[in-house]
Design a protein that fits this description.
Layout (H helix, E strand, L loop, with lengths): L16 E2 L19 H4 L5 E2 L7 H12 L13 E5 L8 H4 L6 E4 L8 E2 L1 H8 L15 E5 L3 H5 L9 H4 L1 H4 L1 E2 L10 H6 L13 H9 L1 H4 L4 H8 L6 H5 L39
Parallel strand pairs: 3-6, 3-7, 4-5, 4-6
Antiparallel strand pairs: 1-2
């Protein structure tokens, strides 16, 4: 099974350096007495310098490319990169992703203008039978399957009729899935060290709800900023609620690296658990 190798901060091209101003350490114990918040990240010099603004959305696209990687001298290209999303956790990001790669298809009601349609129509697009909807020749098509799980496609005899035309694609394509074969959830992608961002999230139901509700805003946040904060403490619901809103294509103010000034969002003690939450 092909997997997306874990990425370090340096791999993503970021140089993250903590400022002594916000990471004051006790000389004897060596403990951090002041931890950064989103507000700190909005201050020039608080956390410097993210040399490239590689965002969560960029990392997601990179994960797609890696999962579909193949040796051109050994095998034929995969017909499609299947993206199951049984709980529809990623669905709110689809409008953003459709602005980027022209090879993103979606299973759903018939809407050719956004490359979404029923199974038979999608098969026609993938086989090049619809010249008005050409696919790039330099990328593997991505087929998002909202409401569909990988086991549903595997059970070909019990596969719903509306999905059966797509079932055979699992033998000619690849799945974007976790190292253990499970479908990627937002929680798993944020936390996993194998194919994900390897961030620490607080073990709190409010945290899970918060990042799911904030997924559109989270997409624009530089990975380096998340990594820097996660290195000092677990991210929690306060952090995700404080994420800045940013429209597609809109640039951040100079020096903010995608973050804006906000009120102090340090969590209360009952909101933090330094133990990593289970990967879903």
């Amino acid at each position: 099974m092909r997997t997306y190798a874990p990425r370090s901060a340096s791999h993503f091209g970021k140089a993250v350096m903590m400022s002594p101003r916000f990471t004051t350490r006790a000389s004897a114990a060596g403990m951090i007495t002041r931890q950064p918040t989103w507000a700190d990240l909005g201050n020039e010099g608080a956390i410097a310098t993210i040399t490239t603004a590689t965002t969560v959305l960029d990392a997601l696209e990179d994960a797609f490319r890696i999962s579909a990687a193949f040796n051109r001298d050994d095998v034929v290209p995969p017909a499609v990169n299947l993206w199951p999303d049984e709980k529809r956790e990623w669905e709110r990001l689809l409008p953003r992703l459709r602005l980027r790669p022209r090879h993103l298809l979606t299973f759903g009601s018939h809407a050719p203008t956004i490359r979404m349609g029923l199974a038979i129509w999608l098969r026609c697009v993938l086989t090049g039978k619809l010249p008005e909807l050409p696919l790039p020749t330099d990328a593997i098509p991505i087929l998002c399957l909202p409401g569909v799980s990988r086991p549903t496609l595997h059970a070909t005899d019990e596969c719903p009729l509306k999905l059966r035309p797509l079932a055979e694609l699992q033998y000619r394509g690849v799945f974007w899935s976790q190292h253990n074969g499970k479908d990627w959830t937002v929680s798993a992608f944020l936390q996993s060290e194998k194919g994900g961002l390897n961030l620490r999230l607080a073990r709190h139901t409010g945290t899970q709800d918060a990042f799911r509700r904030s997924i559109e805003k989270l997409a624009d946040i530089p990975v380096g900023g998340l990594e820097a904060m996660s290195a000092t403490r677990s991210l929690d619901g306060h952090d995700f609620h404080a994420l800045p809103s940013q429209s597609p294509g809109r640039s951040s103010p100079p020096g903010t690296h995608g973050f804006r000034r906000s009120a102090d969002t340090n969590p209360t003690p009952d909101m933090i658990c330094e133990t990593r939450a289970p990967v879903a």
